Amino acid sequence: MTAYLIGDLDIFDMPTIEDYRAKALPLVEKFGGRALALESSPLELENWKSGSMVLLEFPNRKAIEDLFASEEYAPLAAQRQSAAASKLIAINALD
């Protein structure tokens, strides 16, 4: 079942995040994922003050778990965490 990773990032070091994205997106693809949306100024509709938002699609939730558990991603996670306060969730699609 398709799964989505949704991220809400409060970025305080944009150059580091840009470097992170350049490295992380190819790794996302290696784990079967793809970026669907990246928005630095999302439209806030009801009771959600958000930062920069990202939406990634994966073939299933296990692919997301495998990415986050990989040795390759560990230093990138640390890089992201050093440059932004992140809220990340994974959800299943309706299919």
Automatic annotation (TrEMBL):
Coiled coil: none annotated. Residues 2-92 form the DUF1330 domain. This is DUF1330 domain-containing protein. SUPFAM superfamilies: Dimeric alpha+beta barrel. It holds the Pfam family DUF1330. InterPro entries: Dimeric_a/b-barrel (IPR011008), DUF1330 (IPR010753). It comes from Sinorhizobium medicae.
